Amino acid sequence: MKDYTANRKIIGDVIARLDALDIDLYLIITAEGCDPMTAFIPGVDTVGSSAFLFARSGRKLATASSIDAQDVEESGLFDEVVRYDSFDQTLANMVRELAPKRIALDFSENVAFCDGLTMGKYARFIESLDGFTFEAVSADLFIPDVQAMNA
């Protein structure tokens, strides 16, 4: 089994940065490893659509397909792992429950590592929220600092 000690520290560093920057949630939306961030945080590989949610409050949540959920659960990195029937609806419900005002997402004009969220995935996410609004900010506000701290 993989050792997630370094990933646990990285997640703690991310959550500390969220609080310092007044960001309520860091959300990674991925499928088939399309977002390079998942190798860094959380460090768990998934094949199907997955999302990793890191809340300013310290909550760590994930949603994954039935095929991927076991690996995510066994990592021990998350307080809760939700297996989904409908990825979009499950993720939307999780975000609405957390009710974040500011969400950091993996988009960036300047830091390629922080630019893994595709426009299509973002558009589907927004549509699934059914009117729930938030301010989107780039993960490049803190990920480079967290990388430097964990180099």
Characteristics of this structure?
alpha/beta; six-stranded mixed beta sheet; single chain; 38% helix; 19% strand
Q: What structural category characterises the helix and strand content? A: alpha/beta
How many structural domains in the coordinates?
1
Number of helices: 6
**Major sheet summary line:** 6 strands, mixed
Overall pLDDT level: 95
CATH architecture: 3-Layer(aba) Sandwich
- The name CATH uses for the topology is Creatine Amidinohydrolase, Chain A, domain 1
The Cα radius of gyration reads 14 Å
- Biggest sheet strand line-up: 4-3-2-1-5-6
Helical fraction: 25-40%
Order of helices and strands: HEHEEHEHEHEH
- The geometry reads as globular
Cα separation of the termini: 23 Å
Report on this model:
The chain starts with a helix and ends with a helix. It has one domain (5-146): Creatine Amidinohydrolase, Chain A, domain 1 (3-Layer(aba) Sandwich). The protein has 151 residues and is α/β, with parallel strands linked by helices. Helices cover 38% and strands 19% of the residues. The radius of gyration is 14 Å and the shape is globular. Helix 5 links the parallel strand 5 and strand 6 (135-138). It contains six helices and six strands; from the N terminus they run αβαββαβαβαβα. Helix 1 (5-20) crosses helix 6.
Characterize this entry briefly.
With 151 residues, the chain is of the alpha/beta class. Helix content is 38%, strand content 19%.
Give the secondary structure arrangement, pairings included.
Blueprint: H1 5-20, E1 25-30, H2 37-40, E2 50-55, E3 60-64, H3 66-74, E4 80-83, H4 87-98, E5 102-105, H5 119-128, E6 135-138, H6 143-149
Parallel strand pairs: 1-5, 3-4, 5-6
Antiparallel strand pairs: 1-2, 2-3
